[in-house]
Specification:
By secondary structure, this protein is α+β, with helices and mostly antiparallel strands. It folds into 2 domains: 1-33; 48-152, GMP Synthetase, Chain A, domain 3 (2-Layer Sandwich). Helix content is 58%, strand content 14%. The protein is built from 5 helices and 3 strands; from the N terminus they run H-H-E-E-H-E-H-H. It has helices at residues 2-32, 48-57, 89-103, 115-129, 135-152; strands at residues 63-70, 74-81, 108-112. It has a 3-stranded mixed β-sheet with strand order 1-2-3, sandwiched between helices. Helix 3 links the parallel strand 2 and strand 3 (108-112). Helix 4 runs antiparallel to helix 5. The longest helix is centred in the N-terminal third of the chain and has 31 residues, at 2-32. It is elongated and about 85 Å long.
Length: 153
């Protein structure tokens, strides 16, 4: 009878520890999901700088989504931050902006954490991917979104 209790206890412990490890792995995978889509190459509108900015930003654990667009001299980027980091938004924004300005010295870089700007850039990225926007309209859209982001702050 005593051996059966020990064996039963061991089986229960193995099951509990086994389940605990699987859920820890699942949580680690969920935390690593980040919403980033690189914009396809278009000969008229080179979005490679925006794609490089996304690559830089997605290395930060607190960033959960990135949208960006650029002209030959301006770049606007919107990021989503983990919900549990919301109290540190201004510091995170300052640090990310500083890092991007160091990498893109030839661009006027505008970074925002505003959800509305994020959605506006998402629409703009869709237009860029479908190639339904001209370079001059892209410049006007980026100017409009940049002004909108400055009004919010």
């Amino acid at each position: 009878m005593g051996n059966q209790k020990i064996i039963l206890s061991l089986i229960i412990c193995l099951i509990l520890f086994g389940c605990g490890n699987e859920s820890a792995d699942e949580n680690a995978n969920n935390n690593q999901s980040i919403e980033v889509e690189n914009i396809s190459a278009n000969k008229l509108i080179d979005q490679e700088p925006s794609n490089k900015a996304k690559d830089i930003l997605k290395k930060h654990d607190e960033v959960t989504g990135i949208k960006a667009a650029n002209t030959s001299k301006d770049m606007i980027i919107a990021v989503q931050i983990e919900h549990n980091k919301r109290f540190q938004l201004q510091k995170i924004k300052k640090d990310l902006t500083k890092e991007l300005k160091e990498h893109f010295k030839n661009f006027h870089v505008e970074l925002t954490i505003d959800k509305k700007i994020y959605l506006e850039l998402e629409k703009l990225e869709e237009k860029l991917d479908s190639k339904s926007i001209t370079p001059s309209k892209l410049g006007k859209e980026i100017d409009r979104i940049t002004k909108l982001s400055k009004e919010k702050t």
